[in-house]
Amino acid sequence: MRSVSEICPYMAYGGDYNPEQWSEEVWLEDARLMQQAGVNLVSVGIFSWSVIELNENQFDFSWLDRIMNILHDHGIGVSLATATASTPAWFVQKYPDSVAVDRQGVPYSFGSRQHYSPCSPEYIQGVKRIVRQLADRYKDHPALKMWHINNEYACHMAECYSAHTEKAFRVWLQETYGTIDKLNEKWGTAFWSQRYNDFEEITLPRHTPTFTNPGQTLDYKRFMNDRFLYLYKIEKDILREVTPDVPVFTNFMYQFKPLNYWQWAKELDVVTWDSYPDPLEGTPSVSHTMWHDLMRSLKQGQPFLLMEQCTGQVNWMDVNVIKPPGVMRLQSYAAIAHGADGIMFFQWRQSRAGAEKFHGAMLPLSGGEESRIFKEVTQLGQELKNLDPVVGARTKASVAIVFDWENWWAVEQEGKPHQHQRYIQQVMLYYQAFYQRHIAVDFVRAQDDLSPYQIVVAPQLYMLKEGEAQNLEQFVSQGGTLIVTFFSAIVDENDRFHLTGYGGPLRDVLGLWVEEFDPYPVGAKNRLHYEDKQAWCYTWSDVIHLDGAKTLAAFGENWYKGYPAVTLNTYGQGQALYIGTEPDPSYIDELVGTVLEEKEIRAPLDVPPNVEVQERHTASDRFIFVLNYHQEAVHIRIPEGQPYTDLITQKVVKDHFPLQGWDVAVLQQRK
Ligand code: GLA
């Protein structure tokens, strides 16, 4: 298999292209304008099943043949989709059983998209047929660069409750547990008279009077994730067999809870994802920046492709605020700064009709090639040609944050001490503290190799799986600094308590144990007392007993006033901090600053506020990205005497240089 950077040794630039919505004259115009805009890659055929297989086994490839040829003649590569994201009308009519069913037992209707059930045997048969046809037909086509499998798996329909799904769930459980006794034990079915005699008695966690069994719900989430991944692998296997050298992937989504992307990433040749920051969050969108870092981490630092973003405004929010001039460009560079090797959009040409006709595009309906947006698209496309040296460059991070999908599923299940807790928010709080200080962050799982890092943060690691406590202990004993936050190490992989008490598995490394939790009512807060200072804390207090650790901050109010809130334990060569509440971000910032100082981890450059700095490295070069999120120009100082080339302007800069409002510099330094 050839890698994406071998196949595209340049910054990929382009978008989803849906030529079937237009006539052939428009195709030629599209190809001309794509060239003008610097487009070198387009995703074709994502929702094209109904125009490729007109009826069962009746294929029409004539339009796709012509479009592949036109694109190739214009020097544009194709990321060819397998067209399986939506079954056609004839398919649904012929196989009414192939649609998904919602939790109330209502089948989905045709007329939108993604209505198929991931467990429908007819869907799987149809997928195998069309994917093989596409692979056989285009395997030697010179425009074919990569395969785009399906599209945003589970985006609209992540849970199916059809009869086929129930059957498949039972098989999955049997394979997972072997015996019904084991399942009964792991799900704790002695509670509420839930004991099963046989796998055949088990139903999907459907319409129940109150809370479902947590073990069952968790396994249902695992099963649905596995089921979608199984569909992906069916397609991948066919494509690998016919085109062993062509990379395959599907596109991931933002803060998408139903799919465990750690598991998925192993099956992708390149991680790609779709980023649609809410303009109201402002620029930079730290939550999307965090997602870039997570996406880069999924394949241990291998660069990702930004597969979709919007040029102007989407059409699926309540109010679709537009991006002002310069914001799309800045967001694109932010993606590259955090590890992207390509910038793609949804979509090339704005649709004339259909549910997304008001969605922004590279080539807008109004104004066409004279529009502001097309001019910005063209400017970026031309600039990115100068960034080819960055392709393949890696991020070097000394800090990692633990992020675990199964923990996300478990900690947000019903029946918890605090129902308003959001795992992502807890992760973001700590991510933000490093981001503000321009410190690169990778994401990891608690079972991963932590030796490349000096600092590991595990926010709200409620589910601690077998072997993870030992891995974290090893990291600290060998000199690492670990930061663990409240409501961690509570349950095992089946959402059953660890019998060693709250936080029990980490008692040695943290030097404490937690006896009780005190979740705060909405709006309530407490105080942290530390040194001679005070800070607010929110959401939750742990009632902590020390067993070797020392107190860094104590609670200021309530009956546990004076009890430890933030602690530090020395363990082997390293240190473990525990934060038994949600401190104000200013406190987290101070704490993170102290830890970074101790470890001598510094930002690549000192820059004014509202300017971001990130670094990427190849064996021969260092690239420093400087992004100005101010409207005003700022002055950037670089280490004296060392000359850098700004890849965008191709000018040499030394000592200091001005950076205009909303502008960016990509400084190359030879090593
Ligand atoms: C998703 C889909 C695209 C399109 C865009 C619109 O990312 O993959 O097909 O619907 O959203 O923003």
Describe the structure.
This protein is α/β, with parallel strands linked by helices and 671 residues long. Among the domains are: 277-391, no CATH class; 399-599, 3-Layer(aba) Sandwich (Rossmann fold), CATH 3.40.50.880; 611-670, Golgi alpha-mannosidase II (Immunoglobulin-like), CATH 2.60.40.1180. 30% of the residues lie in helices and 22% in strands. The strands form five sheets. Strands 12, 13, 14, 15, 16, 17, 18, 19, 20, 21 and 22 form an eleven-stranded mixed β-sheet that branches. α6 (121-138) packs parallel to α9 and α15 (423-436) crosses α18 (585-599). The two termini are 31 Å apart. Bound molecules: alpha-D-galactopyranose. Alpha-D-galactopyranose binds next to loops.
Gyration radius, rounded: 26 Å
Sequence stretches where pLDDT stays below 50 over 5 or more residues: none
- Average pLDDT, rounded to a whole number, is 97
**What small molecules are bound in this structure?**
alpha-D-galactopyranose
| CATH class membership of the domain at 399-599 | Alpha Beta
Largest sheet: 11 strands, mixed
- Terminus-to-terminus distance: 31 Å
Provide the helix percentage.
25-40%
Query: Would you tell me the structural class of the helices and strands?
Result: alpha/beta
For the record, the CATH architecture of the domain at 399-599 stands as 3-Layer(aba) Sandwich
Give the total of beta strands.
29
CATH fold topology of the domain at 399-599: Rossmann fold
User: Number of DSSP helices?
Assistant: 18
Give the overall form: globular
Which range does the strand content fall in?
Answer: 15-25%
CATH superfamily of the domain at 399-599: Class I glutamine amidotransferase (GATase) domain
